[in-house]
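User: I want to check something. If I give you two sequences, will you return the structure for each one separately, not as a complex?

Assistant: Yes, each is folded on its own. Here is the first sequence with its structure:
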Amino acid sequence: MAYAGIDYGLGQSNIDTANGIRYGVISQNSIMPECTDEFEQDYGKPTCPECGNECADTTPESRHWESYSEHGCADYVCMTCEHTLDSSEVFSDESLGFSYDAQGYRLTNCLDFDIFVIKSPYYTFAQFCSPCVPGAGNLDNPMPDGVKTYCLGHDWFDESRAPYPVYSVETGEQVNPE
């Protein structure tokens, strides 16, 4: 019997309280690179390059449209400096992270280069990822006696085969590669 590790989350962190399944963590290097093409990049909140304060949206749907619509096609306005700014001026050039919310999955970035599986139609059993992500399961270290952990399905991996057994959250049945 292998050692599952320590639950530094004490059963309170990184767990879906509705069903007791732990969130999963897996390296981006473990999946097919093309899977990340669908990730939505996060460039942070729009901030003024002059003062650093958050900028307000000036699109017709925003509450600031009437006040700043006469300034042309500016996308944002700094309410402190009253500068109107284009979107290229208010966002970082580098992505701060990513998210994915489709096909029953909810994923986000974790640590430097990992994927945090917050929701999935699938689970497996894995070692604890603690102490880096207290209470979560490390999908790069699956183990039969580990904790029940949300995981990615077979189609996220080369040859459409996950490196761990995959089970359906809905039925509890093992899902075999196609």
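And separately, the second sequence with its own structure:
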Amino acid sequence: MAQKVIGIDCMFSGSIVEIPQNEGDGFTPGDSVVYKDEDGKEEFGKVKYIDAQPFDLEKVLITSKILRPATPNDMQKMESHVDQSGQSLEKCQELVAQHALDMQVFRAGISFDGTKVHFMFTADERVDFREMVKDLAKAVKKQIYLRQVGPRDKAKIIGGFGKCGRTLCCSSFLNRLESISMDMVRDQGLESKGSSKLSGSCGKLLCCLKYEVNTYRKLKKSIPDIGSIVKLKKSVVSVSKQAQVVGFDILNQKVKVLTEEREFLIISVEEIEKVVKTPESRGGSRTTEAPEEPMSEESSEEEKIKTL
């Protein structure tokens, strides 16, 4: 079993770093700490989570550790960086406009020692910002770091409110952004809702689509596939014995069937005696959508949702 880790929200990079958790650390989420980064230098951050399995074992900072809880002097030092980071961000945005670069810089963070500045930006394609960085380095007189992130990461950092009216999950309690796929949409019968209702403020599939999908998948196991031929119990109809499944309601465990007399009925799963034939056994294809190729989290997910 991998060693448990502590997740720290780094004020410099704006990302969560994971370091090994040692016995007796005694820290809780929300604590401000000073820790040793991968270069052995002091960095400031807030504990995001503790006692967790590594999200990516290869990215755990094995040689890092928390040096101390943040002192009043540490906090004062970080507060002094706030104005610098704001000025650096404004200057970077100004130079991006001057160089006519197709990128949106939205965050700047100053390192704990004040020698480095870290910028985050989004862009649709690769951007050649080499000339802009030269001008930026002269203006801010610090070592420059630029990192391109996706729209989900941007939403997590900036924050906001979702369709439900609550604070975005990614910026409030979700410590890790997990992949959301169209399979989750189909398993919950939501593919007809349209992209506007299925996408969040980041333009990607809603994170909350993952919350109930396991329950839907469990309930769906008791429901015959669309196109199946089922035998109905005698208590349902007096003449017809078989019918074809043409729709279903997963949560209420209801099935819509077409009888041999061309009559539509809505029955409960318990009123089905057995499944006589499945779409595969009849040699036909399923009436549901054909399986798609695996999707990457950032690109294919956006592409698939546009086809709904």
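Because they were folded independently, the notes below concern the second chain alone. Confidence is low (pLDDT under 50) at residues 282-308. Residues 180 and 207 are 7 Å apart (CA to CA).
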